[in-house]
Amino acid sequence: MNHLPRLIADWLALWRDLPRHPRQVLLNRAHLPGSTLAIASTMLADLVFDHPYTTTTVYAALVLLGPSSLVGIVGSIAHPLWDRGLIWADLDCEFCGDDPDDGDDDPEPEGPDGDGDDLIREITDYLRATTPYATSH
Predict the structure, then answer these.
(1) How far is CA 137 from CA 1, 128, 134, in A?
(2) How far apart are CA 98 and CA 91, in angstroms?
(3) CB atoms < 10 A from the CB of 136, how many?
(4) What are the Cα distances from residue 81, in Å, to 50, 75, 85, 89?
(5) What's the number of CA atoms in the CB half-sphere (13 Å) around residue 28?
(6) Whole-angstrom Cα distance, residue 56 to residue 113?
(7) CA 31 – CA 76 distance, rounded (Å)
(8) Per residue in 107-121, is it b (16+ CB within 10 Å) or e — as a string?
(9) Residues 39-86: tens digit of each pLDDT
(10) What gap in Å lies between CA 96 and CA 18, rounded to an integer?
């Protein structure tokens, strides 16, 4: 079974998904700064070593990783706006996993007769009784 290296598969997936789901790609790319870091590191290497090979590497990195980095930068701008609920309230960030419009960060209230503690105790007792290493109290 042949698989593509992760970086190549990720780069191809970016260009496959960007035309179909541009907003989702922008939100996800805000969490993936790899291409921007790779460009910055090649530029730093060129600055430090000042060799024709490092300059060629910088140009190659800009051509190959520049568009992905640009999408990541735009995503980094869009993500805080989404997080505040100012844009794209209908989307969920796959990395954050929480919709900013929920507003339901409070735990579930207890039942109408206040039996929340009894339910937790019942579940805990059941789990203790059914585990292979149950201990008797």
Answers:
(1) 52, 10, 10
(2) 9
(3) 5
(4) 40, 10, 6, 10
(5) 13
(6) 72
(7) 8
(8) eeeeeeeeeeeeeee
(9) 999 999 999 998 899 999 999 999 988 998 999 999 999 999 999 999
(10) 19
Is the pTM for the entire model greater than 0.70? Answer: no
- Residue 82 CA to residue 65 CA, distance in Å, equals 25
- In the numeric block, which tokens belong to residue 112? 């109408």
Residue type, 5: P
Is residue 134 predicted with pLDDT exceeding 50?
no
Instruction: Put residue 102 in one of left, alpha, beta given phi > 0 → left and psi -120 to 50 → alpha.
Output: alpha
Nearest to 31 by CA among 80, 84, 90: 80
Q: How far apart are alpha carbons 16 and 9 in whole angstroms?
A: 10
Among left, alpha and beta (phi > 0; psi -120 to 50; other), residue 82 is alpha
Q: What gap in Å lies between CA 112 and CA 92, rounded to an integer?
A: 32
Q: What is the pLDDT of residues 82-127, one digit of tens each?
A: 999 999 989 888 888 655 455 555 555 444 555 556 777 776 776 6
